[in-house]
């Protein structure tokens, strides 16, 4: 029995030690340090991407990386079309083909063109067949009409060009292709007077060819000139300085239309083109009546005879600045007096829709911010045209360019015309008649106090 006890005791001790060692053994390392257990369940859910995020991100990255590739294939197409539509003229001069251009009317008489004598013209009708021919291909034409043309068509083999719809007396026509023969077909009128036709080959046409644009839809400056030539004599360098040098939208409106003297219209267009104005002027239908002083102007045209026309131009062009002539008529010309006198009323009338309601309905009303009159005695400013030099005219002074414009009015010339007038009625002196933007301080710019961002240039 004692032997059995002695054998069991070591066995029991061995079992006890084995059990104790099993209870004290450490767990494996890989099962004891999971990082997720550090975060709360809600935090782990926020940090984890949604199941759909992976497939959505992949296509987005693919689309982003592919976007630059198709752009070079599609975008350049419209850019090339736009450039071709507005492609500049060739840098080589066109050949003047006018001497080689022949015209046959009604199968019989022949006309010659290019004499530059715009006091002479050919009288043509829609009933006559008018054919032109030039041995050398013609790429552009320049028509000089002696009145406002209606619509007309140039027909040639394989095509036609509609012209005259804008009413330009001097009309430049760039043909879509070179032609040698064409027919002139009148459709807007039965009879018309044609002064001249000039023809040119492919290339840049001479500077004297006038490529008129339509009158501005809205203007920065509206200059109301009583007669054709007053815009140069009494407004000095206004047109070349603001219209070309500073690039403002300058619109000229003539109070007198010279409808009975076509030569004055030709001279007006030549003068404006010379000083850098390329948007067609507006001509009224009023005749030129030689009268003296304001009383004479009122007697000839009515007390407010010019107001309706002026109000229409103010509403139509909505200028920031409007200029007109001396209320004393410079040297006492009655129409000059009435132009300035009536504008003093027109700037108020234009803002009132009940006055001249037809133009108010067509264009809306307009309250012009600044109104200047030549030689007006109050709030005067001094525009020193002699000392304002224009890079756009090769460094000439604004006054020198104005004189070039005046020189185009050949029928009105006498001696040193510009200096004669400016000796007594200085084109550099203007007065601010009315302002919605405060008085001038520097007194050397029509646009002083006009915010640059409000200009439509």
Distance separating the two termini: 128 Å
Q: Tell me the radius of gyration.
A: 41 Å
What is the CATH topology of the largest domain?
Rossmann fold
**Low-confidence sequence ranges:** 1-5, 20-86
What helical percentage do the residues reach? 25-40%
Output the CATH homologous superfamily of the largest domain. Answer: LmbE-like
Approximate shape: globular
Question: What CATH architecture of the largest domain do you see?
Answer: 3-Layer(aba) Sandwich
What does this structure look like?
The chain has 457 residues and is of the alpha+beta class. It is built from 14 helices and 17 strands. The chain folds into 2 domains: 98-200, Galactose-binding domain-like (Jelly Rolls), CATH 2.60.120; 221-454, LmbE-like (Rossmann fold, 3-Layer(aba) Sandwich), CATH 3.40.50.10320. Helix content is 31%, strand content 22%. The strands form 3 sheets. Strands 1, 2, 3, 4, 5, 6, 7 and 8 form an 8-stranded antiparallel sheet that branches. A hairpin with a 3-residue loop joins strand 1 (102-105) and strand 2. The radius of gyration is 41 Å and the shape is globular.
Short description:
This protein is of the alpha+beta class and 457 residues long. The protein contains 14 helices and 17 strands.
Distinctive features:
single chain; 457 residues; alpha+beta; Jelly Rolls; Rossmann fold; 2 domains; eight-stranded antiparallel sheet; 14 helices; 22% strand
